[in-house]
């Protein structure tokens, strides 16, 4: 397996979306900056790229639109930030970055993809790059329960990362469009799209249920509590962020940085942000069986 990304490959992390399915959590925080296991999703994506030797503004770009100033400030000098005045979609984002990509293959990742495997971040998706011929499109995927279900590719569900050759990127315009229709399906029909299986755990974190499940998976069946959080109540299998105060009971829940749970409160299967914002995700998937 390849030790890292070759020189002719760059990476783009897609972080522009509004995260409408996660509202009201994303009312004031972009989905890419929502914490999973007390680490913003965008940082997890950047760490995964760094594990492949992809780092810095010359090799990594992040697109931003919704609450884009927050995304840009968070990224800082770690990557090139492409700010869109209007949402361009997954294909339009690459079209806007065409001059930056400049002839290279591009590894494209969704900021909201939570991946966890026995291998470290980076090496866990290195199979996408291993032996790549520079011409085919590659998608990271997992077998779907029903291989005929809509949205699958060769019977697999997409798990957040793809690898595109320059000849498929160079024609993308900087206007709203998605990769499914402009690149993935056409190359699939032409026999030029390959699915690389991902053996680990995947959540897209787009719904409160999956977002909570990803956090519980990151906690590993125990509590994950930031060092400066104050917990005088009861916490069980929960993630508690920096500066949070928990005086009540939290079970199978996420307490965001700076949030509060008062002594009279009992939260279960819940996400708490701020002092009172509460999102119940009762239909979460069992993190241990994901």
Strand content: 25-35%
What's the end-to-end separation, in Å?
Answer: 26 Å
Could you tell me the radius of gyration in angstroms?
A: 19 Å
Structural class: alpha/beta
Query: What's the order of the H and E elements?
Result: EEEHEHEHHEEEEHHEEHEEEEEEEEEEE
Beta strand count: 22
| Poorly predicted tracts of residues | 286-290
Mean pLDDT over the residues: 94
For the biggest sheet, the summary is: 7 strands, mixed
- Tally the helices: what do you get? 7
Strand numbers in spatial order across the main sheet: 5-4-1-6-9-8-10
Shape: globular
- What is the percent of helical residues? 10-25%
SSE layout:
Layout (H helix, E strand, L loop, with lengths): L8 E6 L20 E2 L2 E2 H10 L9 E5 L3 H8 L4 E4 L5 H8 L1 H4 L3 E6 L3 E3 L20 E7 L12 E9 L1 H4 L9 H11 L3 E5 L3 E3 L4 H12 L4 E2 L4 E2 L2 E3 L2 E2 L4 E2 L2 E3 L2 E2 L4 E2 L4 E3 L1 E4 L3 E4 L10
Parallel strand pairs: 1-4, 1-6, 4-5, 8-10, 12-15, 13-16, 14-17, 15-18, 16-19, 17-20, 18-21
Antiparallel strand pairs: 2-3, 6-9, 7-11, 8-9, 21-22
Helix pairs in contact: 3-6
How would you portray this structure in words?
The chain has 290 residues and is of the alpha/beta class. It has seven helices and 22 strands. It has helices spanning 41-50, 68-75, 89-96, 98-101, 166-169, 179-189, 208-219; strands at 9-14, 35-36, 39-40, 60-64, 80-83, 105-110, 114-116, 137-143, 156-164, 193-197, 201-203, 224-225, 230-231, 234-236, 239-240, 245-246, 249-251, 254-255, 260-261, 266-268, 270-273, 277-280. The strands form six sheets. Strands 5-4-1-6-9-8-10 form a seven-stranded mixed beta sheet, with helices on both faces. A five-stranded mixed beta sheet has the order 12-15-18-21-22. Helix 2 links the parallel strand 4 and strand 5 (80-83).
């Amino acid at each position: 397996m390849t030790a890292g990304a070759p020189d002719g490959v760059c990476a783009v992390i897609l972080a522009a979306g509004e995260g409408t399915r996660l509202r009201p959590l994303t009312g004031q925080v972009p989905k890419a900056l929502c914490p999973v296991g007390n680490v913003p999703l965008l940082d997890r994506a950047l760490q995964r790229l760094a594990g492949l030797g992809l780092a810095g503004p010359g090799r990594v770009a992040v697109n931003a639109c919704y609450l884009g100033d927050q995304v840009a400030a968070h990224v800082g000098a770690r990557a090139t930030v492409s700010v869109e005045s209007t949402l361009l979609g997954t294909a339009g984002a690459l079209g806007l970055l065409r001059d930056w990509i400049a002839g290279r293959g591009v590894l494209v990742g969704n900021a909201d993809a939570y991946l966890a495997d026995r291998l470290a971040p980076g090496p866990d998706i290195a199979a996408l790059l291993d032996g790549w011929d520079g011409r085919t499109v590659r998608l990271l995927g997992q077998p779907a329960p029903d291989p005929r279900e809509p949205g699958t590719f060769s019977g697999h569900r997409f798990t957040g990362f793809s690898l595109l050759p320059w000849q498929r990127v160079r024609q993308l315009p900087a206007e709203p469009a998605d990769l499914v229709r402009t690149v993935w399906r056409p190359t699939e029909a032409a026999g030029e799209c390959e699915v690389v299986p991902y053996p680990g755990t995947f959540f897209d974190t787009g719904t409160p249920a999956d977002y909570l499940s990803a956090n519980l998976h990151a906690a590993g069946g125990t509590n994950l509590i930031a060092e400066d959080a104050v917990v005088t109540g009861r916490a069980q299998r929960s993630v508690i962020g920096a500066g949070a105060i928990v005086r009540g009971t939290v079970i199978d829940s996420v307490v965001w940085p700076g949030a509060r749970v008062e002594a009279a409160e009992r939260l279960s299967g819940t996400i708490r942000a701020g002092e009172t914002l509460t999102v119940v995700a009762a239909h979460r998937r069992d993190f241990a069986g994901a």
